[in-house]
Amino acid sequence: MSSPRSSSLLAWPAAKPSRAGRPAVSPEERRRTRLKRKLKENLTAYGLLCAALVVFALFSWYPIVRGVLLSFQQVDFVNAPTWVGFGNFTRLFEDPLFGVAWRNTLLFTGLALVFGFAVPFLTAVLLNELRHAKAFFRLAVYLPVMLPPVVTALMWKWFYDPGPGLFNSALGAAGLPGGQWLDSSTTAMLSLVFVSTWANMGSTTLIYLAALGTIPGELYEAAELDGAGLWKRLRHVTFPQTRFVLLVLLLLQIVATMQVFTEPYVMTGGGPDDSTVTVLLLLYRYAFVYNDFGSASAMSLLLFVALGVFSAWYVRLTRKADQS
Amino acid sequence: MRTLVSPGALRSPRGKVVYGVVFAGTLAVFLLAFMFPLYWVVTGAMKSPQELAQTPATLVPHEWHPETFADAWDQLSLGKYFLNTLVVAGGAWLAQLAIDVPAAFALSKLRPKFGNVVLGLMLATLMLPATALLVPTYVTVTDLPLLHLNLINSPAAVWLPAAANAFNIYLLKRFFDQIPDELIEAARLDGAGPVRTLWRIILPISRPILAVVSILAVVTAWKDFIWPLLVFPDTGKQTLSVMLQRVAIDMPLNVLVAGMVLASLPMVALFLAFQRQILAGLTAGSLKG
């Protein structure tokens, strides 16, 4: 913390004993005042930090430990918690819905990546070429992101209604047969993926757009002089130049979509035929319907292990980008 | 600015035609995909219940019932739920500023002993998927350690966990790091203590980052669903989202849709007013955090 000037003063105390009217002080005394100042500074710093330390301790660090402990306990808030070892995990593995929930979640994540990854990227590449109405495009694509997710879910639930819903009305007007959407176990998950893609593509699109804006134009020019066509320029300039952003958003999306909850909870409640029961929906049921907080915590722990790798990778990547 | 397609190619007669077609197509798709649903919801709220139940649906309402918005306001007690949501989101915003700004300042400029360890422990929480802590945090909130307080049904159950936000601290610290130390040193020589320096010097020049953090805080709190669903079992204390989801099945569709429109308006207005800050927060939030 000490500035270069004060340290040089300390280094040659004898050479300049009294500078500009300052009284001569012995080195020990000077060290003592410096120590005092350091101590005071540390105290102020921790004073400013204490509120943050308290909330982190209570709502982040302690719950992490508590979560691991709960995973090995039987807790129902009626009886005292008891240790059950891996009992909660066994209970989960024996639940037929457990496998279903993971399969559904992976299906959701997979489908969400296909749409939520490709569509925003292509949209961004396209928008980057357009010279007009840029502000409108950005506003339009981002507007759904601002809607409360419950509103989006309820809105789309109504759109999907096989009777007077928007989609079947539009299909009917075009002379096409309507779909079952949320009411069929084969299409329900796909229908949820559409909603999630529609609601969230605004942020990814705009992030890609920002990344595309940083590509130096000379690269395209040089590629074109070398005879590279549109596709080759996309493949050899646009892709490599946005590779990092693509990777980061891929990780971010995997982490986000594996935790999908609002859409299935509000739109299908897990049905039809458990086809939209996701990991988080099952976790919610264990904790708040069956009152089995131990098994729910065990489920959280499994989810954390599954996602921890991606999260750690993501944090490392972004910190590396930050340093460069 | 040179992009994928060269300006030369765009100027050629063929390029102009292709551009026109692509532009018109994109515009049509955007209007259909993003504007039409909003039109549908707003006009749907003004249709009569009979018209809403009609198959196929009507494109333009035969009869207009704008009074449905007023009915929804009364029937859903929207005033109360708006106030609840405002208290929850506003408090979360204040808590984040009041707790995270001093913390980031201390870590960035005062650099106390073990400051890096503290920062590391905070940043490590970013590696946890948000929902992995749902159950243990809920259990903690029902009975705070040492204090033995139960925060269920209290807005503090949202405010305090929201303040334990490592991402905010990271964002703020990065900004404070760029402020030259000489400025702090000069303030110290003028006799200002660290708190005064933070208040009089750092905060005024940190407006851009404070705006980003503020907007992220408000938007996140307003949009959140699962946590308020858990901590507000008392129906009178719930936020808009939780209430809408709860009454969705029993309400007449036109009233529900009107309620949905009204619940979304503040966020849409916020977006229109603070577009620049929101988009700045978006890129900061995803790439550098």
TrEMBL record, chain A:
<dbReference type="InterPro" id="IPR035906">
    <property type="entry name" value="MetI-like_sf"/>
</dbReference>
<keyword id="KW-0812">Transmembrane</keyword>
<feature type="region of interest" description="Disordered">
    <location>
        <begin position="1"/>
        <end position="31"/>
    </location>
</feature>
<keyword id="KW-1003">Cell membrane</keyword>
<protein>
    <submittedName>
        <fullName>Permease component of ABC-type sugar transport system</fullName>
    </submittedName>
</protein>
<feature type="domain" description="ABC transmembrane type-1">
    <location>
        <begin position="102"/>
        <end position="314"/>
    </location>
</feature>
<keyword id="KW-0472">Membrane</keyword>
<feature type="transmembrane region" description="Helical">
    <location>
        <begin position="188"/>
        <end position="211"/>
    </location>
</feature>
<dbReference type="InterPro" id="IPR000515">
    <property type="entry name" value="MetI-like"/>
</dbReference>
<dbReference type="GO" id="GO:0055085">
    <property type="term" value="P:transmembrane transport"/>
</dbReference>
<comment type="similarity">
    <text>Belongs to the binding-protein-dependent transport system permease family.</text>
</comment>
<feature type="transmembrane region" description="Helical">
    <location>
        <begin position="43"/>
        <end position="64"/>
    </location>
</feature>
<feature type="transmembrane region" description="Helical">
    <location>
        <begin position="139"/>
        <end position="159"/>
    </location>
</feature>
<feature type="transmembrane region" description="Helical">
    <location>
        <begin position="293"/>
        <end position="315"/>
    </location>
</feature>
<dbReference type="GO" id="GO:0005886">
    <property type="term" value="C:plasma membrane"/>
</dbReference>
<feature type="transmembrane region" description="Helical">
    <location>
        <begin position="106"/>
        <end position="127"/>
    </location>
</feature>
<dbReference type="InterPro" id="IPR051393">
    <property type="entry name" value="ABC_transporter_permease"/>
</dbReference>
<keyword id="KW-1133">Transmembrane helix</keyword>
<dbReference type="Pfam" id="PF00528">
    <property type="entry name" value="BPD_transp_1"/>
</dbReference>
<feature type="transmembrane region" description="Helical">
    <location>
        <begin position="244"/>
        <end position="262"/>
    </location>
</feature>
<keyword id="KW-0762">Sugar transport</keyword>
<keyword id="KW-0813">Transport</keyword>
Automatic annotation (TrEMBL), chain B:
<keyword id="KW-0813">Transport</keyword>
<keyword id="KW-1133">Transmembrane helix</keyword>
<dbReference type="GO" id="GO:0005886">
    <property type="term" value="C:plasma membrane"/>
</dbReference>
<protein>
    <submittedName>
        <fullName>Permease component of ABC-type sugar transport system</fullName>
    </submittedName>
</protein>
<dbReference type="Pfam" id="PF00528">
    <property type="entry name" value="BPD_transp_1"/>
</dbReference>
<comment type="similarity">
    <text>Belongs to the binding-protein-dependent transport system permease family.</text>
</comment>
<feature type="transmembrane region" description="Helical">
    <location>
        <begin position="151"/>
        <end position="172"/>
    </location>
</feature>
<keyword id="KW-0762">Sugar transport</keyword>
<dbReference type="InterPro" id="IPR035906">
    <property type="entry name" value="MetI-like_sf"/>
</dbReference>
<dbReference type="GO" id="GO:0055085">
    <property type="term" value="P:transmembrane transport"/>
</dbReference>
<feature type="transmembrane region" description="Helical">
    <location>
        <begin position="117"/>
        <end position="139"/>
    </location>
</feature>
<keyword id="KW-1003">Cell membrane</keyword>
<feature type="domain" description="ABC transmembrane type-1">
    <location>
        <begin position="82"/>
        <end position="274"/>
    </location>
</feature>
<feature type="transmembrane region" description="Helical">
    <location>
        <begin position="21"/>
        <end position="42"/>
    </location>
</feature>
<keyword id="KW-0812">Transmembrane</keyword>
<keyword id="KW-0472">Membrane</keyword>
<feature type="transmembrane region" description="Helical">
    <location>
        <begin position="81"/>
        <end position="105"/>
    </location>
</feature>
<dbReference type="InterPro" id="IPR000515">
    <property type="entry name" value="MetI-like"/>
</dbReference>
<feature type="transmembrane region" description="Helical">
    <location>
        <begin position="209"/>
        <end position="231"/>
    </location>
</feature>
<feature type="transmembrane region" description="Helical">
    <location>
        <begin position="251"/>
        <end position="274"/>
    </location>
</feature>
